[in-house]
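Intended use. Records like the one below are meant for learning the mapping from a protein sequence to its folded structure. Do not use them to infer anything beyond what is encoded.
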Amino acid sequence: MLFFVKNQFNIVNILFSLSLVLINLQCAPAKLNGTCDPESESFVLSALLEFGSTDGSYLCPIFSGLNPLRLDYGTDFLVIKQGEPIVTLKPFVSEPIDRCESSPSMPFGLVLDESNCSISGTPLTGLNSTKFMITASNRTKQTTFPLVIKSLFIPKFAFVANVGSGLINSYTINATTGALNAGGFVAAGGGPESMAISSDQKYLTVANRNTNNLSHFSINPINGNLTIIGTVPSGGNTPVSVVYHPSKNLFYVSNADNFATFSVNPLTGNLTLENTIPKIHASGSAIVNPLGNFLYDTFYSGNMIESYRIDSTTGILSPNLTQVIPSDIRPKKLAFHANGKTLYVIYDTNSNITTYQVDTNTGFMSPVFPLTPSTGVVSGSIASDPLGRFLYITNRDTNTISMYGNMPLSGELIPLSPNSVATATEPLGITVDPSGKFLYNTNIADSTVGIFIINQTNGSLTSNGTVGTSTSPAVIVTAGTNP
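Structure written out for the chain above:
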């Protein structure tokens, strides 16, 4: 229906434009055999071809002022790296423009050429996925192109939560080799099973399942040492997951009985409980999509995936479910493709991976591919690389990590060959560093972190050793810094 309405609208515009051309040229000398002659039998066909084209050239000069201004970067998602110059991104523009501007302004270090909308420069900061509205205009026309830009942080620190000891280990990351250098440790609460880093990389928040509270730390930007800011109630009972909004000073806690939204003072790090909403179902792992529009969570015992809309201004969750969709048995963990258009789900006691395509405007999920098998039965966790190329899963029963490639447009998973790499005993947590160069996993049975180098061409993993942790490491996260 949308396609029909859109075409109907275009036909009306074409006929209206043709009538103007005919009126303006009714006294022009006749070119009876020319396809650009309004009195020619081929003129209507020329007009239809012109108004349906997107190449910016004109079959007939008289059409040059009637076509809409067109701007196209060839992609709606641009991934760049902090501190590395980008190849100039030159868009297609259908005709000369007088001005080009962006809202919000380009990331620090990037330059938008006002004369042709080209983007160049060296990003000096890391940035989570942010939508930039690029507007090109001339004296009579204007058009806007939405471009999502993500600037990958240089990796600096790693943090590990240990459910056995309740301690958080900190490490510095060698940005060349991925090696971890052990730093200090701090105490969290009981059963720290989930951690999250704030979007500005300044704070680490830990959900303590057994003590119903949150441990909130500041991160030293020089050495990664953690300093406790406060320990606060989680806003509900049994906090099982914590996740930050990608661009606001907010995070969400998935408790057994509700969702709690906390704000973070950007200067002091102090926490304020802003809102709670009751859960319809007792859910588990939660994740926010890369643009911060929707929150998704697993309904573990009900075999479903749920979604909630996030208010674009306040960041508060809607109390009403956006969608509930069936999943396989006991959904456990979630991961998004970097562009936010594909969601992956793994399960607690089977070897399947579900791939959902996601409408970024409505948040609706659609299962479009058959279940993808993993190389284990008892899945641990799941991580996608920040460039949207690869996906990895820990398998506790086989002591392996499964490896997959992503189809760039559809998000469909393609098993790598070989499909898995060996780990130490009982791999559980997993993460890819902010630059997409290294992968880390926790091995809960032997209290180590596995270090892997990611092949940037095919996604395969090469072991670079292990480093010790405290007792029973469950979760690992990584962080960068901004100037």
